[in-house]
Amino acid sequence: MINIQEKQADGTLLFGWKSSPPLTPFAPSYTHLFMEKKIFSEEECEEWNEYLLKQEQIILDNFRTSLGDGLTGLGDNSVTSRHPFFNVLEFDFHLAEQLKTKLFDCICCLLNITDNTTWQETLYTTCWFNVLRQGEKMKIHSHAYHNNTFYGFHLTIKATETFTSYYHPIKHQEEAFHVPNKQGYLTLFPNLIPHGVTPNKYETPRITIAGDMYASTIFPLALPKTLIKIGTYNNPK
Asked: Is position 191 within any domain?
């Protein structure tokens, strides 16, 4: 296994794992690449923080029934457990469109870096937010493992001394990246990667925005209402 850790000229960080060259027909061959990039200023994150905390109670009031917390351990009373009911990119908030643009730009960059420039597809995303109060954490979980698996993302809005751990899907906790949650930083990760979040030790809520990106092929008949188109990847080089 080869560890990847590279910094681009604009400060974007690439990290992950790559298999050693296979020496038999059955040896594993993979690249699990992550991207971390700052997309919002501290001032913009403070605006997000104030807005999302107000939205939390509105969502809990409007959607009384939980559809599960995605195995995060946050429980049925969390806004995370209402994630199928809303999309942050549809919120009437002046930074929502900027987030949508940044998400598409970053996934295009990642596709270019990985030499997938001949792939053409319309991309969609879910997008929710998480609120972790003092003592709360996220259990290790993953978002997808099927033939349409793509990328997930995580954007730190407010956090004090927490980090997200991304675990190798085979070696598990023997091999992991423990990434500090830095305000305004977006992380893109392969959706099959197990990950979890350390406990919030402080009274200030930890606020993050998260979601899953999809190629349109995953929904051949009809797109779910909360899925938002972010753009069409068509060899943008």
From this structure: yes
Task: Tell me the mean pLDDT in the region 68-95.
Answer: 96
Distance CA 59, CA 80 (A): 10
Q: Which residue has the tokens 């730009």?
A: 105
How large a percentage of the chain has pLDDT more than 90? 81
Domain that holds residue 200: 32-234
Task: Give the total number of structural domains in the chain.
Answer: 1
Taking the C-alpha atoms of residue 212 and residue 126, their distance in angstroms, rounded to an integer, is: 5
- For 15, the token pair is 């990290």
Q: Check: CB of residue 174 under 8 Å from CB of residue 168.
A: yes
- Tens digit of pLDDT for each residue in 52-63? 999 999 999 999
